[in-house]
Amino acid sequence: VQLQAFGGGLVQAGASLRLSCVASGRAFRSYSMGWFRQAPEKEREFVATITWTGSSTYYADSVKGRFTISKDNAKNTGYLQMNSLEPEDTAIYYCAAQAGAYPAVKPTSYRYWGQGAELTVSS
Fold it and tell me: How does pLDDT run along the chain (123 residues), one tens digit per residue?
């Protein structure tokens, strides 16, 4: 499966933004999806994940209550709705897909990766 992330940009603190991850190739509906981010000079970190059915989600503590992950299998698209953005959210955001049925928080669990969408949150 091929993934492509869209929707990054430059926003002010407190704003909202939605990232999209469009999938092509094998049936996206069969894959669980995750979002990760990498800030300058930092390691890639887990943000959120959703199982392939959409029945289960899991979030990093730093984004819980502000970000929402979702998946529209009919459109082969996953989303990350980000509200109340903070300068600390500045990073390149990557979407990823894995064939497992359970939420996965480690990057090594994901086989397929998108190219990344850059988000900058100004204070």
Answer: 899 999 999 999 999 999 999 998 767 788 999 999 999 999 999 999 999 888 899 999 999 999 999 999 889 999 999 999 999 999 999 999 998 878 899 999 999 999 999 999 999
Largest Cα separation within the chain, whole Å, is 41
Closest CA to 103 of 34, 47, 35, 43: 34
Q: For the sheet containing 77-82, what is the strand order?
A: 2-6, 17-24, 77-82, 67-72
**Rounded CA gap, 26 and 69, in Å?**
21
- 11, burial (CB in 10 Å: exposed 0-12, middle 13-18, buried 19+): middle
Burial 24-57 (b: 16+ CB within 10 A, else e): eeeebeebbbbbbbeeeeeebebbbbbbbebeee
